[in-house]
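INFO batch 0412 | record 1 of 1 | parsing
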Amino acid sequence: MRYDTIIIGGGLSGLCCGISLARQGQQVAIVSAGQSALHFCSGSFELYGRCENPLEGIASLPKEHPYRKMGIELTASYAEQIKDIFEAAAVKCTGEATRNHYCLTPIGVIKPVWLTLNDYARFESPDRIPWRKVALVNFEGYLDFYPQFIASGLAKYGVKSDIHSLSLTAFDNLRESSTEMRATNIARIMTGEILEQIAAYLNSHAGDAEALFLPAAFGLFDDTAVAELRAMVSLPLFFIPTMPASVPGVRTQIQLKNYFQRIGGTYLLGDNVVSGEIENGRLKSVKTANHGNMTLSADNFVIASGSFFSHGLIASQESIREPIFGLDIYADRVREEWYDKDLYSHQAYMGYGVVTDNKFRCSIDGKCIENLYAAGSILAHQNALDEGTGGGVAITTALFVADEILRSR
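INFO prediction complete | emitting tokens
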């Protein structure tokens, strides 16, 4: 099978790149193993979390950083372009690249972010939370939501919380096993009469609260359940991320995947690229686990397979490697340099990844592979945890690579 571009990795970066290319008329295939980091997403995306204006902060990053390779102007442009892609895919979010806003994490920490799905509470500053009292409502038996932590976090900013536990007979089967009482399973039954029961409970137990908060367990495939429940309650209703799996993250991946397929993309789910044929400095084709000896060929390829979490990078006792092609990697050679025993100190391995040129083209033994690009968290010289750049790097580098591929034609 032949395509214009084949993308390895079907998470946020791979999908954004694939959508951008498919919108320009390319025949694109994405090979996706399945679960991606989006399944662990809180419902917000960070661009740069160390200062109020992300674009100003980017200027202070090292020149090897993916943002600096693209340049601030292009980074800002792609941060704006993604809104059009998200809107077309029905991913409804709010935010600006020139100013971070703030959201609650699953453990009640208030953190700066760039884009947030419209399900969630967001505010311009922790010092300007618009409510003095809220009601936190959990479902009886649901263990991945921590109202006490959230109440403690809000209390630091002068917000009082009433905590409620809602019991629904519809959850009886799920409650028989803690492994079944998960946000994604709860979200599947959040329709019709159950939403009406939840709304009745919220309206009768709100007391003097100014806003209502529930765990983000609504709207697995779209935001219909969110809109319906909000229409039935008398107070502003917001959702707070839970521990994984993340309903908003899964929903975002489904919506992006569905949009990619609607505009002509091919999404090969549950497959892995295992090898590739390189000839005269170009990648000619790849083989996947499911297609056996049948090769997938293309003019261009993108590796967006992620970092250690999704096995885009593999660490052994001796080395760190990219497992498909053996791409050049930036990493310290001595294992003891990879990490600090103090968990809260800087961890060097977080910045390891694939080495690329200024067009994000990969290399093997120092020789550029002219038509193989890298995007997202597999790229070296970024540290999403320290910098608050994870979603931003995934999105902007994906769009940059898509443009480079289009220019190369």
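INFO post-check: The CA atoms of residues 82 and 395 lie 7 Å apart.
INFO record closed
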